[in-house]
Amino acid sequence: MRIEEYRGAPFVDREEEIGFFVEWFSRVPQRILWVYGPKSSGKTTVMEYVVERKLLTEREWWIKSKYWVKYLNLRGKLITSYSSFLDALIVPEEVYEETVERNVYLSLGMICLESKKIKQVKERKKNLFDVLIEEIDRERRGGRIPVLIIDEIQKLRDVYIRNSNGERELLKEFLNFCVRLTKEMHLSHVVILTSNTIFIERIYNDARLKETSEFWKVDHLRREQVEKWLEFEGFSDEEIELVWEYLGGSIPRLIKVIEAKESGRDLKEHLKREVWLAYTEIVDYLTDFGERERKYFKEIAKEIVKKGYYSLEGVTKEKKKLLQDWAEKEILFYDPLELKVTGNSRVYEKALERMIEVHLGEKWTSNFGQYGKMKKNGKD
Ligand SMILES: Nc1ncnc2c1ncn2[C@@H]1O[C@H](COP(=O)(O)OP(=O)(O)OP(=O)(O)O)[C@@H](O)[C@H]1O
Ligand SMILES: [Mg+2]
Protein backbone atom coordinates (compact mmCIF):
# COMPACT_ATOMS: atom_id res chain seq x y z
CA MET A 1 0.00 0.00 0.00
CA ARG A 2 1.23 3.48 -0.84
CA ILE A 3 0.67 6.87 0.74
CA GLU A 4 1.03 9.49 -1.93
CA GLU A 5 0.36 13.17 -2.10
CA TYR A 6 -2.90 14.29 -3.61
CA ARG A 7 -4.08 17.90 -3.42
CA GLY A 8 -1.32 18.66 -0.95
CA ALA A 9 -2.49 16.08 1.61
CA PRO A 10 -1.56 12.43 2.10
CA PHE A 11 -3.73 10.12 0.05
CA VAL A 12 -4.11 6.58 1.31
CA ASP A 13 -4.09 4.34 -1.70
CA ARG A 14 -7.42 2.72 -2.36
CA GLU A 15 -6.08 0.15 -4.73
CA GLU A 16 -9.15 -2.03 -4.84
CA GLU A 17 -11.56 0.80 -5.59
CA ILE A 18 -9.24 2.43 -8.11
CA GLY A 19 -8.66 -0.90 -9.88
CA PHE A 20 -12.40 -1.52 -10.05
CA PHE A 21 -13.21 1.93 -11.49
CA VAL A 22 -10.40 1.86 -14.04
CA GLU A 23 -11.60 -1.49 -15.31
CA TRP A 24 -15.20 -0.31 -15.31
CA PHE A 25 -14.36 2.66 -17.54
CA SER A 26 -12.42 0.44 -19.95
CA ARG A 27 -15.59 -1.51 -20.77
CA VAL A 28 -18.53 -0.64 -22.98
CA PRO A 29 -21.19 1.18 -20.93
CA GLN A 30 -23.98 -1.27 -20.11
CA ARG A 31 -25.31 -0.22 -16.73
CA ILE A 32 -25.43 2.74 -14.35
CA LEU A 33 -22.82 2.44 -11.61
CA TRP A 34 -24.07 3.43 -8.14
CA VAL A 35 -21.32 4.21 -5.64
CA TYR A 36 -22.55 4.25 -2.06
CA GLY A 37 -21.09 3.93 1.41
CA PRO A 38 -21.09 5.45 4.89
CA LYS A 39 -20.77 9.18 5.36
CA SER A 40 -17.24 10.46 4.72
CA SER A 41 -15.86 7.09 3.68
CA GLY A 42 -13.96 8.78 0.83
CA LYS A 43 -16.31 8.21 -2.13
CA THR A 44 -15.92 11.63 -3.69
CA THR A 45 -12.16 11.73 -3.16
CA VAL A 46 -11.45 8.33 -4.70
CA MET A 47 -13.70 9.12 -7.66
CA GLU A 48 -12.05 12.47 -8.24
CA TYR A 49 -8.66 10.80 -7.94
CA VAL A 50 -9.62 8.28 -10.61
CA VAL A 51 -10.83 11.07 -12.89
CA GLU A 52 -7.76 13.23 -12.46
CA ARG A 53 -5.02 10.65 -12.25
CA LYS A 54 -6.36 7.76 -14.29
CA LEU A 55 -8.90 8.95 -16.85
CA LEU A 56 -7.38 12.28 -17.71
CA THR A 57 -3.68 12.38 -18.38
CA GLU A 58 -1.84 14.79 -16.16
CA ARG A 59 -0.28 17.00 -18.80
CA GLU A 60 -2.63 19.02 -20.98
CA TRP A 61 -5.27 16.52 -20.15
CA TRP A 62 -8.18 18.52 -21.47
CA ILE A 63 -6.73 18.20 -24.95
CA LYS A 64 -5.22 14.76 -24.98
CA SER A 65 -7.43 12.64 -22.83
CA LYS A 66 -9.28 9.76 -24.40
CA TYR A 67 -12.14 10.37 -21.96
CA TRP A 68 -14.59 13.26 -21.93
CA VAL A 69 -15.51 13.62 -18.28
CA LYS A 70 -18.20 15.65 -16.59
CA TYR A 71 -18.22 15.49 -12.80
CA LEU A 72 -21.39 17.13 -11.57
CA ASN A 73 -21.40 17.59 -7.82
CA LEU A 74 -24.78 18.73 -6.55
CA ARG A 75 -23.50 19.38 -3.01
CA GLY A 76 -23.92 23.00 -2.08
CA LYS A 77 -26.20 23.64 -5.05
CA LEU A 78 -29.65 24.91 -4.33
CA ILE A 79 -31.88 22.87 -6.57
CA THR A 80 -35.55 23.51 -6.02
CA SER A 81 -36.84 23.59 -9.56
CA TYR A 82 -36.10 22.54 -13.10
CA SER A 83 -34.74 25.97 -13.83
CA SER A 84 -32.30 25.93 -10.89
CA PHE A 85 -31.23 22.44 -11.99
CA LEU A 86 -30.39 23.86 -15.41
CA ASP A 87 -28.48 26.75 -13.89
CA ALA A 88 -26.48 24.41 -11.67
CA LEU A 89 -25.31 22.18 -14.49
CA ILE A 90 -25.37 24.02 -17.77
CA VAL A 91 -23.26 26.99 -18.77
CA PRO A 92 -23.36 29.03 -21.94
CA GLU A 93 -20.35 28.67 -24.22
CA GLU A 94 -18.99 32.19 -23.57
CA VAL A 95 -18.98 31.70 -19.80
CA TYR A 96 -17.48 28.24 -20.20
CA GLU A 97 -14.55 29.52 -22.28
CA GLU A 98 -13.77 32.07 -19.59
CA THR A 99 -14.04 29.51 -16.83
CA VAL A 100 -11.77 27.03 -18.56
CA GLU A 101 -9.18 29.74 -18.88
CA ARG A 102 -9.47 30.62 -15.21
CA ASN A 103 -9.85 27.16 -13.76
CA VAL A 104 -9.57 24.03 -15.79
CA TYR A 105 -10.82 21.88 -12.96
CA LEU A 106 -14.04 23.87 -12.60
CA SER A 107 -14.89 23.13 -16.21
CA LEU A 108 -15.31 19.48 -15.28
CA GLY A 109 -18.33 20.41 -13.22
CA MET A 110 -20.39 21.93 -15.97
CA ILE A 111 -21.87 21.02 -19.29
CA CYS A 112 -21.38 23.64 -21.93
CA LEU A 113 -24.15 24.45 -24.41
CA GLU A 114 -24.70 27.10 -27.07
CA SER A 115 -26.73 29.98 -25.67
CA LYS A 116 -29.33 29.41 -28.38
CA LYS A 117 -29.88 25.84 -27.20
CA ILE A 118 -30.08 26.87 -23.56
CA LYS A 119 -32.81 29.33 -24.49
CA GLN A 120 -34.73 26.64 -26.36
CA VAL A 121 -34.43 24.30 -23.41
CA LYS A 122 -35.54 26.98 -20.97
CA GLU A 123 -38.53 27.78 -23.14
CA ARG A 124 -39.27 24.04 -23.38
CA LYS A 125 -38.96 24.07 -27.14
CA LYS A 126 -36.36 21.36 -26.75
CA ASN A 127 -36.05 18.62 -24.20
CA LEU A 128 -32.99 19.08 -22.01
CA PHE A 129 -32.07 15.42 -22.03
CA ASP A 130 -32.35 15.13 -25.82
CA VAL A 131 -30.02 18.10 -26.14
CA LEU A 132 -27.55 16.51 -23.72
CA ILE A 133 -27.62 13.26 -25.64
CA GLU A 134 -26.81 15.19 -28.84
CA GLU A 135 -23.81 16.78 -27.10
CA ILE A 136 -22.56 13.52 -25.65
CA ASP A 137 -23.02 11.77 -28.98
CA ARG A 138 -20.93 14.47 -30.65
CA GLU A 139 -18.09 13.85 -28.21
CA ARG A 140 -18.36 10.11 -28.78
CA ARG A 141 -18.22 10.51 -32.54
CA GLY A 142 -15.22 12.79 -32.05
CA GLY A 143 -13.44 9.74 -30.63
CA ARG A 144 -13.64 10.34 -26.87
CA ILE A 145 -15.34 8.16 -24.30
CA PRO A 146 -17.93 10.15 -22.38
CA VAL A 147 -18.11 9.70 -18.60
CA LEU A 148 -20.84 11.37 -16.61
CA ILE A 149 -20.46 11.39 -12.82
CA ILE A 150 -23.16 12.77 -10.56
CA ASP A 151 -22.38 13.25 -6.89
CA GLU A 152 -25.06 13.79 -4.21
CA ILE A 153 -27.88 12.64 -6.46
CA GLN A 154 -30.34 12.62 -3.55
CA LYS A 155 -30.63 16.37 -3.97
CA LEU A 156 -32.90 15.72 -6.96
CA ARG A 157 -35.26 13.67 -4.84
CA ASP A 158 -38.05 16.17 -4.49
CA VAL A 159 -37.72 18.30 -7.60
CA TYR A 160 -40.45 18.25 -10.18
CA ILE A 161 -40.51 19.37 -13.77
CA ARG A 162 -43.68 21.21 -14.61
CA ASN A 163 -44.89 20.75 -18.14
CA SER A 164 -48.11 20.48 -20.10
CA ASN A 165 -48.63 16.89 -18.94
CA GLY A 166 -48.65 17.95 -15.33
CA GLU A 167 -45.80 17.44 -12.90
CA ARG A 168 -43.08 14.91 -13.46
CA GLU A 169 -40.23 14.06 -11.23
CA LEU A 170 -36.94 15.48 -12.37
CA LEU A 171 -35.15 12.54 -10.83
CA LYS A 172 -37.22 10.05 -12.81
CA GLU A 173 -36.51 11.89 -16.04
CA PHE A 174 -32.86 12.06 -15.16
CA LEU A 175 -32.62 8.36 -14.41
CA ASN A 176 -34.39 7.52 -17.66
CA PHE A 177 -31.75 9.60 -19.39
CA CYS A 178 -29.02 7.63 -17.60
CA VAL A 179 -30.58 4.33 -18.69
CA ARG A 180 -30.68 5.56 -22.27
CA LEU A 181 -27.01 6.56 -22.13
CA THR A 182 -25.86 3.23 -20.75
CA LYS A 183 -28.05 0.20 -21.31
CA GLU A 184 -29.78 1.39 -24.46
CA MET A 185 -27.28 3.48 -26.39
CA HIS A 186 -23.96 2.43 -24.77
CA LEU A 187 -22.95 6.02 -25.34
CA SER A 188 -21.57 7.14 -22.02
CA HIS A 189 -20.56 5.81 -18.63
CA VAL A 190 -22.78 7.02 -15.83
CA VAL A 191 -21.62 6.90 -12.22
CA ILE A 192 -23.89 8.11 -9.44
CA LEU A 193 -22.57 8.70 -5.91
CA THR A 194 -24.44 9.09 -2.66
CA SER A 195 -24.10 8.37 1.04
CA ASN A 196 -27.86 8.38 1.35
CA THR A 197 -28.64 4.68 1.38
CA ILE A 198 -32.35 5.19 1.86
CA PHE A 199 -32.16 6.56 -1.61
CA ILE A 200 -30.08 3.59 -2.77
CA GLU A 201 -32.71 1.29 -1.33
CA ARG A 202 -35.39 2.96 -3.40
CA ILE A 203 -33.37 2.37 -6.56
CA TYR A 204 -32.45 -1.14 -5.53
CA ASN A 205 -36.09 -2.02 -5.01
CA ASP A 206 -37.16 -0.60 -8.35
CA ALA A 207 -37.17 -3.65 -10.60
CA ARG A 208 -36.36 -1.77 -13.77
CA LEU A 209 -33.52 0.26 -12.29
CA LYS A 210 -32.06 -2.67 -10.42
CA GLU A 211 -31.69 -4.51 -13.69
CA THR A 212 -29.87 -1.61 -15.31
CA SER A 213 -27.64 -0.81 -12.34
CA GLU A 214 -24.54 -2.04 -10.58
CA PHE A 215 -23.82 -1.14 -6.95
CA TRP A 216 -20.36 -0.61 -5.48
CA LYS A 217 -19.70 0.16 -1.85
CA VAL A 218 -16.84 2.39 -0.76
CA ASP A 219 -16.42 1.59 2.91
CA HIS A 220 -14.17 3.05 5.59
CA LEU A 221 -10.50 1.99 5.42
CA ARG A 222 -9.59 -1.55 6.33
CA ARG A 223 -7.35 -2.39 9.25
CA GLU A 224 -4.19 -2.99 7.15
CA GLN A 225 -4.64 0.37 5.48
CA VAL A 226 -5.05 2.13 8.82
CA GLU A 227 -1.99 0.34 10.19
CA LYS A 228 0.17 1.38 7.24
CA TRP A 229 -1.02 4.94 7.32
CA LEU A 230 -0.50 5.42 11.05
CA GLU A 231 2.88 3.70 10.90
CA PHE A 232 3.82 6.17 8.20
CA GLU A 233 2.68 8.97 10.53
CA GLY A 234 4.93 7.66 13.34
CA PHE A 235 2.38 5.88 15.57
CA SER A 236 3.59 2.97 17.72
CA ASP A 237 1.93 -0.48 17.53
CA GLU A 238 0.04 0.12 20.79
CA GLU A 239 -1.16 3.50 19.62
CA ILE A 240 -2.36 2.01 16.34
CA GLU A 241 -4.26 -0.67 18.24
CA LEU A 242 -5.93 1.95 20.39
CA VAL A 243 -6.86 4.18 17.47
CA TRP A 244 -8.29 1.23 15.53
CA GLU A 245 -10.37 0.22 18.53
CA TYR A 246 -11.88 3.72 18.88
CA LEU A 247 -12.00 5.09 15.36
CA GLY A 248 -11.81 2.14 12.98
CA GLY A 249 -11.13 3.24 9.40
CA SER A 250 -12.93 6.58 9.37
CA ILE A 251 -10.64 8.83 7.33
CA PRO A 252 -11.62 12.27 8.72
CA ARG A 253 -11.32 10.94 12.28
CA LEU A 254 -7.91 9.46 11.50
CA ILE A 255 -6.82 12.80 10.08
CA LYS A 256 -7.93 14.42 13.35
CA VAL A 257 -6.08 11.94 15.53
CA ILE A 258 -2.90 12.44 13.49
CA GLU A 259 -3.23 16.18 14.07
CA ALA A 260 -3.83 15.59 17.78
CA LYS A 261 -0.67 13.51 18.06
CA GLU A 262 1.31 16.08 16.11
CA SER A 263 0.27 18.79 18.52
CA GLY A 264 1.30 16.63 21.46
CA ARG A 265 -2.17 15.93 22.88
CA ASP A 266 -2.84 12.83 24.97
CA LEU A 267 -4.04 10.14 22.60
CA LYS A 268 -6.34 8.31 24.97
CA GLU A 269 -7.96 11.56 26.09
CA HIS A 270 -8.54 12.56 22.49
CA LEU A 271 -10.13 9.21 21.64
CA LYS A 272 -12.35 9.23 24.72
CA ARG A 273 -13.51 12.70 23.88
CA GLU A 274 -14.41 11.63 20.35
CA VAL A 275 -16.58 8.86 21.82
CA TRP A 276 -18.10 11.24 24.35
CA LEU A 277 -19.10 13.66 21.60
CA ALA A 278 -20.63 10.88 19.50
CA TYR A 279 -22.49 9.70 22.60
CA THR A 280 -23.93 13.13 23.41
CA GLU A 281 -24.93 13.51 19.76
CA ILE A 282 -26.93 10.28 20.00
CA VAL A 283 -28.48 11.11 23.35
CA ASP A 284 -29.44 14.55 22.15
CA TYR A 285 -31.00 13.17 18.98
CA LEU A 286 -32.97 10.57 20.91
CA THR A 287 -34.74 13.27 22.90
CA ASP A 288 -36.80 13.88 19.74
CA PHE A 289 -38.29 10.40 20.12
CA GLY A 290 -40.78 8.81 22.50
CA GLU A 291 -40.12 6.09 25.05
CA ARG A 292 -41.00 3.23 22.67
CA GLU A 293 -38.64 4.42 19.96
CA ARG A 294 -35.85 4.97 22.45
CA LYS A 295 -36.31 1.48 23.75
CA TYR A 296 -36.06 0.15 20.22
CA PHE A 297 -32.91 2.18 19.65
CA LYS A 298 -31.30 0.58 22.70
CA GLU A 299 -32.29 -2.83 21.39
CA ILE A 300 -30.53 -2.05 18.11
CA ALA A 301 -27.55 -0.61 19.94
CA LYS A 302 -27.16 -3.77 21.95
CA GLU A 303 -27.35 -5.94 18.89
CA ILE A 304 -24.76 -3.86 17.02
CA VAL A 305 -22.38 -3.96 19.94
CA LYS A 306 -22.86 -7.67 20.48
CA LYS A 307 -22.91 -8.89 16.89
CA GLY A 308 -21.32 -6.05 14.98
CA TYR A 309 -24.54 -5.33 13.08
CA TYR A 310 -28.31 -5.29 13.33
CA SER A 311 -30.07 -7.40 10.75
CA LEU A 312 -32.73 -5.82 8.55
CA GLU A 313 -34.27 -9.16 7.73
CA GLY A 314 -37.89 -9.29 8.80
CA VAL A 315 -38.07 -5.88 10.49
CA THR A 316 -41.49 -4.24 10.46
CA LYS A 317 -42.25 -1.25 8.29
CA GLU A 318 -42.56 0.97 11.33
CA LYS A 319 -39.16 -0.06 12.69
CA LYS A 320 -37.59 0.28 9.30
CA LYS A 321 -38.78 3.86 9.13
CA LEU A 322 -37.07 4.58 12.46
CA LEU A 323 -33.86 2.95 11.32
CA GLN A 324 -33.98 5.07 8.20
CA ASP A 325 -34.43 8.24 10.26
CA TRP A 326 -31.40 7.39 12.37
CA ALA A 327 -29.42 6.55 9.26
CA GLU A 328 -30.39 9.87 7.64
CA LYS A 329 -29.00 11.52 10.76
CA GLU A 330 -25.74 9.65 10.06
CA ILE A 331 -25.60 7.96 13.43
CA LEU A 332 -26.22 4.55 11.92
CA PHE A 333 -25.27 3.18 8.55
CA TYR A 334 -28.09 1.42 6.77
CA ASP A 335 -27.00 -1.02 4.07
CA PRO A 336 -29.96 -2.11 1.95
CA LEU A 337 -27.85 -4.51 -0.10
CA GLU A 338 -26.30 -6.40 2.78
CA LEU A 339 -29.47 -5.93 4.88
CA LYS A 340 -27.43 -4.74 7.84
CA VAL A 341 -27.31 -1.71 10.07
CA THR A 342 -24.07 -0.72 11.80
CA GLY A 343 -22.70 2.41 13.42
CA ASN A 344 -22.06 5.07 10.83
CA SER A 345 -18.43 4.65 11.80
CA ARG A 346 -16.58 2.88 14.61
CA VAL A 347 -16.75 5.84 17.01
CA TYR A 348 -20.56 5.59 16.99
CA GLU A 349 -20.30 1.94 17.92
CA LYS A 350 -18.12 2.89 20.86
CA ALA A 351 -20.74 5.49 21.75
CA LEU A 352 -23.42 2.78 21.60
CA GLU A 353 -21.31 0.67 23.97
CA ARG A 354 -21.31 3.56 26.39
CA MET A 355 -25.03 4.06 25.99
CA ILE A 356 -25.75 0.46 26.90
CA GLU A 357 -23.55 0.79 29.93
CA VAL A 358 -25.16 3.99 31.13
CA HIS A 359 -28.77 3.22 30.24
CA LEU A 360 -29.03 -0.52 30.64
CA GLY A 361 -26.34 -1.02 33.22
CA GLU A 362 -24.65 -3.60 31.02
CA LYS A 363 -21.02 -3.49 30.05
CA TRP A 364 -20.15 -4.90 26.67
CA THR A 365 -16.90 -4.50 24.86
CA SER A 366 -17.36 -4.88 21.18
CA ASN A 367 -14.50 -5.82 18.99
CA PHE A 368 -15.74 -5.09 15.50
CA GLY A 369 -18.56 -7.61 15.76
CA GLN A 370 -18.18 -10.23 13.10
CA TYR A 371 -14.44 -9.57 12.76
CA GLY A 372 -13.46 -10.26 16.33
CA LYS A 373 -14.54 -11.30 19.76
CA MET A 374 -16.75 -9.41 22.13
CA LYS A 375 -17.17 -9.96 25.77
CA LYS A 376 -19.68 -9.06 28.40
CA ASN A 377 -18.39 -7.84 31.72
CA GLY A 378 -20.87 -7.38 34.52
CA LYS A 379 -24.44 -8.44 35.07
CA ASP A 380 -27.06 -9.29 32.50
N1 LIG B 1 -7.81 7.90 0.38
C1 LIG B 1 -7.77 8.98 1.17
N2 LIG B 1 -6.63 9.34 1.80
C2 LIG B 1 -6.59 10.41 2.62
N3 LIG B 1 -7.64 11.21 2.86
C3 LIG B 1 -8.80 10.93 2.25
C4 LIG B 1 -8.93 9.78 1.38
N4 LIG B 1 -10.20 9.72 0.95
C5 LIG B 1 -10.84 10.75 1.52
N5 LIG B 1 -10.02 11.49 2.29
C6 LIG B 1 -10.41 12.66 3.09
O1 LIG B 1 -11.51 12.27 3.92
C7 LIG B 1 -12.53 13.26 3.93
C8 LIG B 1 -13.85 12.65 3.45
O2 LIG B 1 -13.72 12.25 2.12
P1 LIG B 1 -14.87 12.41 1.03
O3 LIG B 1 -15.50 13.77 1.11
O4 LIG B 1 -14.29 11.99 -0.26
O5 LIG B 1 -15.90 11.33 1.54
P2 LIG B 1 -17.35 11.02 0.97
O6 LIG B 1 -17.57 9.57 1.19
O7 LIG B 1 -17.50 11.54 -0.40
O8 LIG B 1 -18.24 11.88 1.98
P3 LIG B 1 -19.82 12.19 1.88
O9 LIG B 1 -20.49 10.99 2.46
O10 LIG B 1 -19.99 13.41 2.72
O11 LIG B 1 -20.14 12.42 0.44
C9 LIG B 1 -12.02 14.39 3.06
O12 LIG B 1 -11.46 15.38 3.86
C10 LIG B 1 -10.94 13.76 2.20
O13 LIG B 1 -9.93 14.67 1.86
MG1 LIG C 1 -19.00 12.78 -1.19
CATH architecture of the largest domain: 3-Layer(aba) Sandwich
The CATH C-level name of the largest domain is Alpha Beta
Helix fraction, binned, reads 40-55%
CATH fold assignment of the largest domain? Rossmann fold
What would you give as the CATH superfamily of the largest domain?
A: P-loop containing nucleotide triphosphate hydrolases
Anisotropy-based shape: globular
Cα distance spanning the termini: 43 Å
Q: How many structural domains in the coordinates?
A: 2
Mean pLDDT: 88
Q: In angstroms, what is the radius of gyration?
A: 23 Å
The total of beta strands comes to 16
Distinct compounds present? adenosine-5'-triphosphate, magnesium ion
Low-confidence stretches: 369-380
Beta-strand fraction estimate: 15-25%
Biggest sheet character: 5 strands, parallel
- Main-sheet strand order equals 4-7-10-3-11
State the secondary-structure class.
alpha/beta
Tally of alpha and pi helices: 17
